[in-house]
Amino acid sequence: MRKYLALAFIQILILTGCGGGGGGYGGSSGSSGGVMSACSAATTSNVEPIIVDQGPTALQNAGFAAVNEAFVSVKVCVPGSSSYQTVDHIQVDTQSSGLRILASALTSITLPAALDASNNPMAECLAFADGSSWGSLATADIQFPSSGESATSVIVQIIGDPAYEAARPPAADCPLPTEDTVPTFGANGILGVGPAVYDCGDACIPGAGAPLPVYYGCATTSSCVAENVPLTAQLANTATLFATDNNGVIVELPAVGTTGQLTVAGSLVFGIGTEANNALGAGVTVLEANTVGGNFGYVTATINGNGLVGTSYPDSYIDSGSNGNFFVDSVTAIPQCTNPNPPPATTGFYCPPSTLNFTTTLTGTNNVPTPSEPFSVANATDLFTTNPTFAAFSNLGGTNGDPQSLDLGLAFFYGRHVYTAVEGATVAGNAGPFYAF
Amino acid sequence: MQAPAVAEHCLNPQQVNRFEFCALCNCIQASRLGYVMSSLLNDMRAPGGVIRHNAKHPFKDRPLMKFISKLGSALIVTAVTAAPAFAALGGDTASVLTDRDQTQGTLRISAAASYSVHEITTPSGTTVREYLTPAGKVFGLAWRGPFMPNLQQFLGSYYAQYVQAASAPHVGHRHMNVEVPGLIVHSSGHMRAFYGRAWTPDLIPQNVSADDIK
Fold first, then answer.
1. CB atoms A97 and B191 under 8 Å
2. Is the ipTM of this complex over 0.85?
3. Which residues of B touch A179 (CB under 8 A)?
């Protein structure tokens, strides 16, 4: 029996491990001696392969399968040691910031804890719209195995770190349901390369007021207290930590037909306008995005089709971490799928009796509209049951809690090169954060 | 300690004489009390939170009502500052919750028209609107902002039901649609931008649509 989750899974490839484990979570951070970590190989390109598949064996063995999730592998190295592990099925997410790895996927190395100003190990609660992930923070050197793009002393979240699960904050601060395991999180980890540089930013720095329930200092593994931390201690968009090619990413995926596809191979290109292969080419429209908190990353979409005539969606965004195109048709309601339990689980997806065709025009704060872009919404249950082993569908749609939002997820990425530039970046006169395609 | 809310006194005959102005309160429609609170609280700016209230009613612009409203202000200030609190979905005047995110006052509204709206901006910058029936029951919520609100507080007794439904396999981290008997929760958003709505169909007043909760 196969269950469909919107997420992905993890599989860990343990490549080697010459030096044994590094420091424990309660230990001190930083490198020991002058040993170069295993993540110091030369950079050979700015292109990392993406695979869209049903996720790692571990996920599938749990009875689930990923749909429309873009995965990369990340080499995670213990600083100052030759120990490392390559973790695959890390989901590429262009609407979050920072690298987060499920503890159960980091089985062969132990990373040193990231310490706060009081030398206490840190932890974080990452809240989603549907729950939260809790875990300790650690320091790692990282490298992308194909391109060689790398960064040192990166703060990563170890989601579901068993040593700190007892210290998980109450639901009032760190919302339920918990997403601290591979089956509930849906991937071995997540690579946040979105429009924000930091995951919390100024709202969490010293002087910002009472600490929000985001960053925590843990005097013991069972006692963590919310605290403000400087930007340098926060999780950052991983691409911004590179020496070059650090102002954004491009997700490039080939087109997928109306019945879907078993797997899709594509590319994650680092940098925008920094190399010959990542320029904002002719025919690319730039959508500068809203930077106001609460509306961060929003552009305006106008939708036509199925009763919608130029309907405006001012809370719209483009997001590789969403697996469908999510919006509400307020004129002619699209039937939602009615099979809540796997297999397949299609709760939240649309199941129209026949495929619906739409077009959308996006406009950023720079007021340059895109051409009219088509997208379709097919019956998700039919898609999944007709080809139960397929992982990629271009016509997957679902409902959106915000009736003014069109969330263009990975379904929209097929057949396009989608640029996501970080805030503060400027590329050919275009101010980040912006999207472009 | 929690001080009873003003409108509650006005609507409860046994408590009418507790405050000097309660006879007056009892004379005016509670919806106008809402307007009093609105104009008063709009000017309150305590650290970490702002609360606004808007009542949908037909008389709020009448000068006499404004005059009566101002008469009640002093006593309302007392009640509000003594009881920083808020009510949860489905809650009534007995359901007053405290939360450290909610550092500003309380309102108990009984509107003559279809519903009233309380709006709180939390310290995180997220705005939560609560929709109350004329009888003072919270029938809907809507939120927008850079961080998720404390749904355990705002969903109140519905929270366990929400969590159970939200734990079922669904489409990903960005969108959560819970639709179970008596409770609908639509939550969506990404890092730094969240939006959601929740309501109890059983409590929505006549002539009010779920689309009004936003």
1. yes
2. yes
3. 173
